[in-house]
Amino acid sequence: MDGSDADDERPPHVDPAVRLAAGRTDVEARIAGLSRQVAALADEQALTTHDDEHDPEGVTIGFERAQVQGLLAGARRDLEAVERAERRLAEGTYGRCVRCGRPIPAERLDALPAAETCVACAPVRRRR
Length: 128
Fold this sequence. Notes:
Elements: H1 4-9, H2 16-47, H3 61-91, H4 106-111, H5 122-126
Helix pairs in contact: 2-3
């Protein structure tokens, strides 16, 4: 048995443009859904006549709205990351670490299509 059999077992790598387009679609759908939730919570809060801040029955509308707004902010950051990756793809630098310039492994790009850094540089970026 030669090494070629093992290579055949790995999933084929998907075209980066296809991965990024799928990522964009997913993130845009998340943004749309979260935006609807924020609007619905704002409407609900406007219709509420009692002071939900002191409601012993559970989570306040304000708290819930803040949580959804936080998720929405994260989704918008994800969209910005996809947009940066699309620019790198157009410029021909997609798949190269923005910190050290080394290639980002295909497996990392399969898992995180908008990855900007290689595995070695990723922790450095997170500590900032």
